[in-house]
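Throughout our pipeline, every protein is held as a single compact record rather than as scattered files. This encoding replaces a full spatial description with a residue-level series of whole-number codes. The remainder of this section carries one protein's record, kept here as part of the documentation.
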Amino acid sequence: MKIVADNTVPYLKGILEPIANVSYLNSCEFTPGNIKDADALIVRSIDKCTRELLEGSQVRLITTATIGYDHIDTRYCEEAGITWKNAPGCNAASVGQYVLSSLVAVALRKGETLRGKTIGIVGVGHVGSIVERLCEAMGMRILRNDPPRAERENSDGFVSLDTIAREADIITLHVPLTKEGRFATRHLANDTFFNQLERKPWFINSCRGAVHDTQALLQAKRNGKVSELIIDCWENEPDIDRELLAEATIATPHIAGFSADGKANGTRMCLEHIQHHFGLKIEKIQEVIPPAPDNEWIDLDRYPSHRIEQAILSTFNPVVIDRALRNFPERFEWFRAHYDHPREFKAYRTIHMRQEERGQLYQIGFQW
């Protein structure tokens, strides 16, 4: 059996070798000639699985270690009898950690508290549900927008985008990028949406760049309709808009889902798809685990104030990667490929907690 894998998929090398001939390629090496004899591909979002790549190959399975799958020509795959699988939810907790840490960083910088603020969550699937739990832990009011779920569930627990535009202090996007159909999300955040905003909200995109219209977002920021920008996903990556970079409060190179835990989850799910599809047993799959953090103990007594906020930032602080991207925006993909993947909240233990802090820390995900 022959498998071709992106060489930046973590924790993979040595796992499949007992049962397969594995070739590790960088994204520019994914060519028709290099993959034509492969039975399966293990890819990331930068590996474009198009008709041009796949036609005439013997590929029968494409697994992507990502939630998104817009880099796979699913229509062609269905025509050609190629099964494709993504990794839904693999990095949901990681994106939640990114959103919460970024909100905390902005709030502390502004001398404000998140408690009592209203956050509008657009898309309440794997990621949005975790963001909801984390924001509830911080005492925030939640507005949920998810038209497909609202229709399926016939539920009154969701609100319209108009309501979010009218009432939210913070708006965060967690939808897939879709270009067709009743619930298409491309340029969901457009001129019409931004012109409806009433509370000068903070705006976060950590899902897909094209869910917002860059020019409309720039105009909204410049005319004061949006007060703070947290941008992890950009249109036309890696050639990101330098004007939007300059306007952003926090700017990162599409790494919100790049925790070590999320990466391990994505790799493990790819392996599980291979097992199922080919009827194999991958004995070493249990070895796909992230390394322990350098220091798993967080001593809350180190912090004279904002103890929980500081604990959150000690697991991931967006300032470091933000500064790097601003200095060298042309290295967008390099930063992604060489990112120092953080561990999630669950990898850390807090000590010297006060009684009133225990429930909040537990809801966020910390151990003790």
